[in-house]
Each structure stands twice: as C-alpha cells, then as structure tokens.
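2024-03-11 09:14:02 INFO worker-7 job=invfold-0412 stage=load source=structure_tokens
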C-alpha cells in the first residue's frame, strides 16, 4: 500500500490528483490510500505516523507550504514532498526542506507517474518487524497489515498478500503497532484504518473486502479515530 497526502486549497487540484490516483490503481493494481486536506493546519494536526508522498501547495495564506514542510520534516524525515505552485519563486527554500520536486501547476499525469514511482523506490524507510513461527521467519511491514485477529491462544496477521500465524497475544500486538492508524476495534481484532472503506452498523468494511466486527463499547473510540485520520476527507 501507498499512503499519499494532498494538501491544496484549490478543490479542483485535489480532485484532479484524486482522479490520477484512481487511474494509477486501475493500471497497476497497487493499493493507494489518500488523505486530502484543504489547508496546512489540518495536515499538520492529523498527520499520521508516516506517508509515502505529499503533494503540497506552497502559497497558503495562514501558513506557507515551506513552513508546513519544515514541521513535517521534524516528524517524518523520509516522506517525499512535491511542491505545487504557479510561480517559481521558492526554489531555494524548497531545496532547504529537501523537497523531492517543485512543479508548476497544472500537474500532468505523466509527471504524476514519475513522482509516485520515485516515492515507491524510496519507501524502504517503512517500519517493519520480524515474526517467527513454526512455519518460518517473516519480515512484515506495518503499513501492509490489514488487520490482526485472535485465533485460539494465538493471533493471525493478515497482510495485503499473506496470512501469518503469530504466537503473540493481542495485547502484545497492540503494543507493537503504535502507529496512529491502528485501532483495537474488538477484543479479538486490531484494524489498520488505512484500509478502511466504510462502517455500517457494528462492522468495518476494508477495501480488501474483509468485514470486521466492532464491539459496542469500542465503537465511539473507533469512530473518533476514523474521523481524526480522515478529517480532510478521502478523494
């Protein structure tokens, strides 16, 4: 999975990049989740543990894109930041915050592809851990985990591609997965909200097609976590 942020005050720009992302998923089969914001304050306030790529407008009125990028770099030194602008007058400042690129609007699809492919190449910083069971030894990237469920005395880690038995208890799994997008939705389930599609009644549906129950006493906290992560809306 790729996690991409769009932060631009122009609704048409956010919509266009959202269209590019949907086209990219159709063409490649790669799962992409999008966090979209119309101003920098929202991006900073709701920034998740890590992103792969951010398309960031420079001339915000309250807080410039350069200042936003500086604050993001303090929390996430690895994310690719691509500045979007209409004028070339912040190039040196963009260089200082280690921007991946500095592009003039409107963004073309061919240019978008180059930036997303470059971000995929640099994504090796994503956090992972090693899981060992009787079947073997597995390197698991936290962002690739869809959910974890209790299986008898053990747990099962469901990723985008594998289903791996773990001898850790659910409480230990919860301690390992400290990223803000993980939430305990049930005694027997932890869900990665980056895969969230919708919530109906007392069930969460993931974009992978999985359906996960939400316990009554955790429902309010789960809803708040979803709202907090997707405050800007999903393109």
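2024-03-11 09:14:09 INFO worker-7 stage=emit residues=235
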């Amino acid at each position: 999975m790729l996690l991409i942020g769009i932060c631009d005050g122009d609704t048409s720009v956010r919509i266009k990049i959202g269209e590019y992302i949907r086209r990219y998923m159709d063409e490649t089969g790669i799962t992409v989740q999008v966090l979209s914001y119309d101003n920098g304050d929202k991006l900073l306030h709701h920034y998740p543990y890590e992103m792969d790529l951010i398309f960031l407008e420079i001339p915000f009125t309250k807080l410039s894109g350069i200042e936003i990028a500086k604050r993001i770099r303090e929390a996430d030194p690895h994310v690719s930041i691509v500045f979007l602008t209409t004028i070339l007058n912040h190039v040196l400042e963009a260089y200082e915050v280690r921007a991946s690129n500095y592009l003039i609007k409107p963004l073309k699809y061919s240019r978008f592809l180059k930036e997303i492919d470059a971000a995929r190449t640099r994504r090796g910083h994503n956090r992972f851990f090693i899981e060992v069971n009787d079947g073997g030894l597995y390197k698991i990237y936290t962002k690739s985990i869809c959910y974890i469920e209790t299986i008898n005395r053990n747990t099962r880690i469901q990723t985008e591609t594998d289903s791996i038995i773990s001898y850790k208890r659910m409480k230990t799994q919860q301690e390992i997965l400290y990223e803000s997008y993980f939430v305990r939705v049930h005694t027997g389930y932890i869900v990665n909200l980056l895969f969230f599609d919708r919530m109906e009644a007392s069930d969460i549906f993931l974009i992978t097609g999985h359906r996960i129950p939400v316990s009554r006493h955790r429902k309010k906290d789960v809803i708040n976590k979803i709202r907090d992560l997707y405050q800007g809306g999903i393109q």
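2024-03-11 09:14:09 INFO worker-7 stage=report msg="The chain has seven helices and 15 strands."
2024-03-11 09:14:10 INFO worker-7 job finished
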